[in-house]
Specification:
Elements lengths: L3 E4 L8 E5 L18 H6 L5 H4 L9 E5 L52 H30 L2 E9 L2 E3 L6 E3 L3 E4 L8 H13 L14 H6 L6 E9 L4 E2 L4 E2 L1 H24 L7
Parallel strand pairs: 2-3, 2-4, 4-8
Antiparallel strand pairs: 1-3, 5-6, 7-8, 9-10
């Protein structure tokens, strides 16, 4: 069974590739005995409904890549060597990671996730079955777009809780509506970053770059502007479109945000078609 869905453009293709690595909810039978969880916990620790928010991307010329496997199985936005030594005690590359490496040891609320620590064989099987195939599809899709268009933009689509702890002081603070992550404007051309910024602000949303998320492993690994390969992680504040207490969609707000994201895909496609070879931003 494939847990990867790649949807090609339904109209004139653009150089935009939207990837949604964290909205999956499925726990495959190969790893189900190793995990203790509930459907509600899986939903709340997913990038909830982000796949649905971007489902209109192909009709606007973008390629859409979605993983259907839960990140309780494997975190596709971490490096394959990001190994928590407490989760995989005998792994030679293991190091102290607070609960969530490429394989999570605990949920975001601190509740234990693994029934027992994994053997190296169990860990390797997860990567071989669910991590490696996803990144192979992502690499191949990006390479094809780059060949056809001379450039590619990977939009890493995520969502985040509406609030988090302050770096200093420990109190909670409400996050911006949108957090573009480009690791200090290094993973995409400045014109792309500026368009994303202005688009969301014009839609009445607050924007804060790289705070608290600078872009994960995918953004840093695939973002190579000098080679015509651009990557931007976009974190959406979940309170914009979902009731965080019940995980229920706010229907009217959801539809409005869908429209904002569709227009973003359209604008980025036009920018990439109209511009010459992009340089580092």
């Amino acid at each position: 069974m494939s847990y990867i869905e790649l949807t090609r453009p339904h109209t004139t293709p653009s150089a935009v590739l939207v990837e949604v690595p964290h909205s999956g909810l499925q726990v495959p039978p190969e790893v189900e005995p190793e995990i203790q969880s509930t459907p509600l916990a899986i939903l709340r620790d997913s990038d909830i409904y982000v796949d649905q928010l971007y489902q209109g991307a192909p009709k606007n010329g973008a390629t859409l890549l979605v993983s259907r496997v839960s990140r309780y199985v494997v975190d596709l936005n971490r490096g394959p060597d990001d190994v928590d030594s407490a989760a995989v005690p005998r792994h030679p590359r293991g190091r102290h990671i607070p609960a969530r490496g490429v394989v999570w040891r605990a949920r975001t609320d601190g509740t234990p996730l693994l029934r027992t620590p994994l053997t190296i064989e169990q860990f390797s099987r997860r990567l071989e079955l669910f991590y490696d195939p996803y990144h192979q599809v992502l690499r191949e899709a990006a390479a094809q777009i780059l060949r056809e268009h001379g450039r590619v933009l990977i939009l890493a689509a995520h969502s985040m809780p509406s609030s988090g702890r302050r770096t200093v002081g420990g109190g909670r603070v409400r996050r911006a509506d949108v957090v573009p992550g480009t690791r200090g404007r290094s993973t995409a051309d400045g014109r792309i970053i500026d368009l994303i910024d202005s688009h969301f602000r014009e839609a009445g949303l607050s924007v804060k770059h790289d705070d608290p998320y600078r872009g994960g492993w995918t953004t840093s690994s695939y973002g190579a502007p000098k080679r015509g390969q651009h990557a931007v992680q976009i974190e959406l504040n979940r309170a914009l479109y979902v009731d965080e207490r019940t995980s229920e969609i706010k229907k009217e707000d959801f539809v409005k945000l869908q429209a904002v994201l569709e227009q973003l895909v359209v604008k980025l496609g036009r920018l990439l078609r109209a511009s010459g070879q992009f340089a580092t931003g």
